[in-house]
Write a structure and sequence with these properties.
single chain, alpha/beta, TIM Barrel, 9 helices, 12 strands, 41% helix, globular
Length: 222
Amino acid sequence: MNTDPQLIVMLTYNDLTVGNAEEIFNSCRNSPAQYWGMKEEPLSPNKMKALYNAMKECGKKTVLEVVAYTENKCLEGARLAAECGCDILMGTVFFDSVNDFCKENNLKYMPFVGDVSGRPSVLGGTIDGMISEANEYIRKGAFGIDLLGYRFVNDASELIRRFVNEVNAPVCVAGSVDSYDRLDELKQCAPWAFTVGSAFFDNCFADDFNTAVNRVCQYIGR
């Protein structure tokens, strides 16, 4: 039976954490949104730890999404997620070393699939190839997959629909969820979760950040 996707609120714009992330979170601390996250840049580790601690004090689940493509940078991001006490590490190109680190440190790992490049990231590759990749990563013990569905250079709707149907693990559709039409599509496809970051700052759902978060939560739960 399908369940409503979870909203992961990202305090990010163009794949970078905003400077006033703490202020924004504090204005939303009573929101029904349960999952909150950041990117690995550009806040200092100390500011990130303090903000993640504030999130956890409010009973939120915490996510770090790492936009990195080399093994060293991906491992660096995984270590940062562990230091911050995050629940979920999203992003990174899959490496066995990162996967092993996450297992050892009780981090739920949701790597990218496909040909990911740039920042903000863009997704290339084939749908069949990405599904095959995902199933291999899940076999190796990854918790789920970070799918840059609406960043796909080809048919995003087909990718998301097939991927959710053919990958037997949690899928988070991340990036460019910026309209009610896309929310409708996600409700229909029913991935485990989706992220919204820049669209909240661009007032795609409301002029006020807290109102927008609440509105998306209500809409997705209808």
